[in-house]
Amino acid sequence: MAQRNSWLRGTTIRKSGPSTSASTRTSTPQLPSTSMSIFAGGVKDPSGRTVEYIDMNEKCPVCDSDAYLKPGLRLLVSSCYHKLCNGCVEVLYATGSEVCPTKGCNVINRRLSYTPQTFEDLTVEKEVAIRRRLAKEFNKRREDFPDLRSYNDYLEEVEEIAFNLINDIDVAETEARIARYHQENAELIELNKKREQEYQRYLQEQEEMERQERELRAQELRRIETEEREEREKGRQAIIDKLETSDKDAARLVAKSRMETQRRASARAASSSSASFNQSNARLLRTRATQSAVVPDVPHVPLQDNYYAYDDMFQMRETYHDPVSEAVRRDREGIMRAGGYRVDQAWERALRFAVAGLDTAPLSGMPAPPPEPMAVDSEGPADAVMVSA
Amino acid sequence: MDAVERANLERQRRWTKDQKIGEGTYAVVYRGRELATGRKVAIKKIKVGQFKDGLDMSAIREVKFLRELKHQNVIELLDVFSSKKNLNLVLEFLDTDLELVIKDRSLVFLPADIKSWMAMTFRGLEFCHRNFILHRDLKPNNLLIASDGQLKIADFGLARDFADPGYKMTCQVITRWYRPAELLWGCRYYSTAVDIWSVGCIFAELMLRTPYLPGETDMDQLKTIFRALGTPTEEDWPGHTKLPDYVPVGQFPKTPLRDLFTAASADCLNLLSKCLIYDPKRRISAKDALNHPYFFALPYPSHPSKLPKPAKKESGIPLEEVDGNTDMSGPGPGVKANPPNKLKRKNSDDLGGRPVARRLDFTK
After folding, report:
1. Alpha carbon distance B283, A175 (integer Å)
2. How much is the pTM?
3. Is A193 in CB contact (< 8 Å) with chain B?
4. Which of B153, B195, B156 is nearest to B44 (CA)?
5. Fold (CATH) for B96-306
6. In chain A, which segments carry CATH 3.30.40.10?
7. Domain ranges for chain B
C-alpha cells in the first residue's frame, strides 16, 4: 500500500540549474549538509534542469534512517541501480572504490557513480540512462538508408540492443555489438551529430528572428497608438477652435471633422497592412523547416530517366576518315575553333543513329521484306557508317 | 471525307477547349481537358491563315522536336491536330514559370531550392543534348513549373538539331541576357555549350533574384559580360579574335565571383564559374554538371513538391512561349534560317515600334 501511494507523498524538487545548490531546497526541512561532495548527474529535462525524486518515507537500506530522522537525507542511486543514502556513500566510499553494499551485487562503485534519483521506478531510471547512451551512438536517419526496409531493420536492431541492456541479457555480447557498430559507423555518427547541431542552431536563429520581429511590431503598434491619441486631441481642439471662430452650423462642423478622422484611420490601416509583409518570411522559413521533416529531401541522383545511349554498341575513335568534315577539322581561318563546334559530336550522332535500331526485331507477318539497303560490315556496327582512318 | 480527315477528327474529339487563357503574336492558348481522363491541358492554336508564307517557323520547330522528346523535365506535347485552317498543339498544362517565381518577392529561396531547380534544368537540358537538340532559348520564363514542382523546359521555337560539320547556324538566337559571348561575336559554328551559358546565367539569377547580365544592346551585352567576368585573353579562349563579328570592347579586370555571390558555397561558385567559361570547348557539359560535387553536397536538393511557388491567385502561365523571343536586331550576315519579322523579341525595354506580342494575362 505504501509502495503504491508513495508517489502521493513523494516530493519532487526542482533545482535551479545544473549546479546543485542546496539552498533552493526549501520545501523539505533540512540541516545544512556536512558532505563535501556534490552529487551531480541524474536525468535532465529539456530545459537542462534535473528534477530529483525524493520519497520522505523511504529508508536507506544500510543505515536504516529516513528523511524524518535525518532531514538532510538523500537517497542516491549507484551505477548498478541500488540505493544508498548520502551519509553512507560518504562513509563507505571515503577511501575510493568499494563493492556495492547490496547483497548479491558485486559491482565495484566509486563515490562519483552515485547520482540523484529522478524517477520513482529505478527500472525507468535505468532504461532512460541506457537509451540516452544509445541515442548518442545510434543516430542514423532515414536518409542514410537506401530504402525503408533497411531503416526499419536498423531500428529493430537498436531496440534489441536496448532491450538486452535493460534486462541484462547477454550484456558482454551486446556491448561488443555496440563497439563494433561504433567502429563501423564512426564517420556517419559524427556527421549526424553535426547535422543535429546545425538544425538546432537553425531553429534557434529562426526563433531569434521571430522574437525581433515581434518586438518591432509591438514598437510600431505603440507608435501608432500614441500618434492616434495625439491626433484625437488635436482634432478635438480644432473643433473647439472652429466652433469659437466660425459662424457655421455646429452640427455640420462636427460631422465634417469626424469624417476627416475616419479617413485618416483608414489610411493608417492600409499602411500598416503592408508592414505585416516582412513577418511572413520568418514564418515561411519555419514552415519550410517543419515541412522538411514530412517530405524528406533525397540525395541527388544525376540522371533520373533510364539513360541509355547505346554506349555498349560502339566505341568512339580519336578520329575517322571523313572527307566531309575535313575542312572543319583543319579550320584554316580558325573560325570554328573559338565557336566550340565539335566534329566528334556529329560522329557520335551518326554512330548512335546507326546502331540504335540494330537489335530491333524485324516486323513479322509482313509481305516479303525489301532487301537491306545498307549492308552491315562484319567488323562491327560502328564501321557501318564510317570507315576508320 | 477521306481517311486523313477522319483520323484528324478523331484526334480532335479527344480534347475539349475550355477557355482562352492567352494570346501571342502567332498563337492563341486555351485551357482544355482530355475528355477521357479530365486531365488539364493547354491547347495552343497556331494561326495559319494570316501568314502568306505558310506555317510559322517556330511552330514547325516546336512540333518537330517536342514530338520526339519525352522526359520528366521537358514539356510534353500530347497531340497535334488541325481544325479548319488552324494547327493545334496539345501541351501539358503547367502552373507557373521560373521567372514569376524569381520575381515574387514574398518567396524565400533556400540554397537547397536553387540546387533542386538547377538539377532539374540540367536534367532536361542533358536529355535534349543527348538527343542532339540545341534549345537555343533558355531563360527563366521558358522554364515552366508543374503543379508538383517539377521544372520543365518549354518553348522549342528556336531549337534545332546539331548541325552537320561545316553547316552554318544562325547566331541570332537566345535572348540577349542569356546569350554567350561567341554568339554575340557572330559565331556560326557552335554547339551545346551555348545552352550551358544560358543555364549559368539562370543559376546566377536564382541567387541574385535579378538578371545577372542585363545588357541593353548586343554591344552593351558584351561589355556587361566582361565587366562581370573580365575580358577574355587569348589564353582563356584561344581563337576568339578570329570570330566573324569580333570587335574589341575594352579591357575589364576579372573580379572574383565571390565578391558578388557572398553567401554561395564554394561548390556552388565552382559550378557557376564552369558554366560561364568563355571557351565553349572548356565549358562544362550538362552531363558533367549533373555529376558536379555541388549537387551531392549537403543540403540535399529540395524535394520538388516543397519548392516555393507564387500564390495561387497570381499564378498565370505567361505562355511567352507563344511568341519567338529572339532579338533579330542584328542583320547577321547570311543567316540560313532567317525567321520572319514577327519573331522579333518583345522586350519590355525595347518596344520601339515593332510588332509586339501582348503580355498574356491569365488571371480570369
Report:
1. 54
2. 0.56
3. no
4. B156
5. Transferase(Phosphotransferase); domain 1 (1.10.510)
6. 36-119
7. 14-92, 96-306, 314-352
Task: Return the CATH number of the domain spanning residue range A36-119.
Answer: 3.30.40.10
Q: What is the separation of C-alpha B225 from the centre of its chain, rounded to a whole number of angstroms? A: 19
Is the ipTM reported for this complex over the cut 0.85? no
The verdict on B167 touching A (C-beta cutoff 8 Å) is: no
B298 to chain A: which residues are within 8 Å by CB?
A: 195
Q: Which of B174, B182, B189 to mutate to test the interface with A (most CBs of A within 10 A)?
A: B189
Of B137, B195, B218, B323, which is the active-site residue? B137
pLDDT digits (tens, 9 = 90+) for B289-312: 999 999 998 888 989 988 888 876
B130: chain A residues, CB-CB within 8 Å: 307, 309
CA distance A98 to A277: 66
- Interface probe for A, chosen from B161, B303, B307 (most Cβ of A below 10 Å), is B303
pLDDT of residue A383: 42
In B, residues 234-293, which contact A (CB 8 Å cutoff)? 237-240, 242-244, 279-281, 283, 287, 290-291
Q: For residue B86, how far is the Cα from the chain centroid?
A: 25
Of how many residues is chain B composed?
364
Cα angle vertex A48, ends A45, A54, to 5°?
55
SS3 assignment for B101-126? HHHCCCCCCCHHHHHHHHHHHHHHHH
Quick check: is B2 catalytic? no
Supply the CATH classification number for the domain B14-92. 3.30.200.20
With vertex at residue A133, the alpha carbon angle to CA A127 and CA A137, rounded to the nearest 5 degrees, is 135
Do A303 and B112 make contact, defined as CB atoms within 8 angstroms? no
Q: Give the other-Cβ count within 10 Å of A255's Cβ.
A: 11
Show the low-confidence residues of chain A (pLDDT under 50).
Answer: 1-36, 274-279, 375-389
Tell me whether the omega of the peptide bond preceding residue B299 falls within 30 degrees of 0, making it cis. Answer: yes
Buried b (16+ CB within 10 A) or exposed e, B74-91: bbbbbbbbbeeeebbbbb
